[in-house]
Amino acid sequence: MTKPDVSVVIPVYNEEAGLASLFARLYPALDALGRSYEVVFVNDGSRDRSAALLREQHGKRPDVTRVILFNGNFGQHLAIMAGFEHAGGRCVVTLDADLQNPPEEIGLLVAEMDKGYDYIGTIRKMRQDTLFRRLASRLMNQTRERITRIRMTDQGCMMRGYSRGIVEAINACHEVNTFLPALGYTFATRPTEIEVSHEERAAGESKYSLYSLIRLNFDLVTAFSLVPLQLFSLVGIGISLLSIVFVVFLAIRRLIVGPEAEGLFTLFSIAFFLIGITLFGIGLLGEYVGRIYQQVRQRPRFLIQAILEPQVVRVVSVAQNDTAEPTLPSVYTGSERP
Ligand code: UDP
Ligand code: MG
């Protein structure tokens, strides 16, 4: 198959409720672009009927559909990375399966790419998420702006455009714990941002629990910044200096006032405070060390069960008269490779 102009990569995890409406909007929107395109779905180990629905859709539009079926649930960002490895487009757009960002706006991203930008970031207009999610996002955005070199207004919006060059760079990375939009940004030479619409989830529910959101944000921070560790050593230096002053003070006091056992609880509180800081530091160190450990083991980042490749659709029977429509094969089986 020749390389398409646009590839759309969509991670899918337990999205059976919304897939039909996604297909119904996505394909017409892409057809309307008037460009060659492919859609790369990555089923991230869904436990519902998502994989079956994707297979069915592959049968309906085999010319432009590729389906990667994972063996288990490896997470949204790794699913997109697998999609990138199999996407051939000049312009690669990522989109969530839940229709929170309208597929009709893919054309806006492609138009920016045509202007020569290589990374199209997005800002959600009137974001339709819970207040808690919006506040937490704002806090994380501010933190990220301070401690990394990644400059983006809205880091959480996953509908984004990446040029071929950036996708190749991401493919060369083999990172296990990463935050894809930020990773792409680090390779961008001409990034830009545009506004896109945002709707409430069409069907199903968010796949991110509070816990997995916290984990994801740790990935974002640890993958792109050492500032937390450096900050910690600064705090450590500060406390050591203070404790030297304290020891000198106690020594002088011992000489002048003599021995004493009072102020025990003050000492306890200082000790607990220091123990708290130490534990936090060890935990933080663990976040980095754990990631290094996962990376150096070099286990496969994800396991692919099967790939349904796009097929060149051949006309199997051409009717005698000119007006009849060519018919597609009645039974279509996608080629599968392990
Ligand atoms: N997703 C995935 N694997 C996961 C979690 C999510 O592939 O482990 C997909 C999910 O199907 C959706 C996208 O990632 O297409 C974003 O997930 P979701 O809409 O639940 O996130 P939110 O919008 O709440 O941040
Ligand atoms: Mg969503």
Question: Could you explain the architecture of this structure?
Answer:
This protein has 10 helices and 9 strands. With about 350 residues, it is of the alpha/beta class. It folds into 2 domains: about 5-225, Spore Coat Polysaccharide Biosynthesis Protein SpsA, Chain A (Alpha-Beta Complex), CATH 3.90.550.10; about 225-295. It has a 9-stranded mixed sheet with strand order 7-5-6-4-1-2-3-8-9, with helices on both faces. β2 (about 35-45), α2 and β3 form a beta-alpha-beta unit. It is elongated. The model is unreliable at about 320-338 (pLDDT under 50). It binds uridine-5'-diphosphate and magnesium ion.
Give a quick rundown of the structure.
With 338 residues, this protein is α/β, with parallel strands linked by helices.
List the main descriptive attributes of the protein structure presented here.
338 residues; single chain; 47% helix; Spore Coat Polysaccharide Biosynthesis Protein SpsA, Chain A; 9-stranded mixed β-sheet; elongated; alpha/beta; disordered C terminus; binds uridine-5'-diphosphate; binds magnesium ion
Q: What is the total tally of β strands? A: 9
Secondary structural class: alpha/beta
- Which sheet architecture does the biggest sheet show? 9 strands, mixed
Main β-sheet, spatial strand arrangement: 7-5-6-4-1-2-3-8-9
Instruction: State the name of the first-level CATH class of the largest domain.
Output: Alpha Beta
* Gyration radius, in Å: 26 Å
Q: Tally the structural domains.
A: 2
**CATH superfamily membership of the largest domain:** Spore Coat Polysaccharide Biosynthesis Protein SpsA, Chain A
Helix and strand element order: EHEHEHEHEHEHHEHHHEE
- Stretches where pLDDT is under 50 for at least 5 consecutive residues are 318-338
Listed once per kind, the bound small molecules are: uridine-5'-diphosphate, magnesium ion
Helix content: 40-55%
Q: Give the N-to-C terminal Cα separation.
A: 19 Å
Shape: elongated
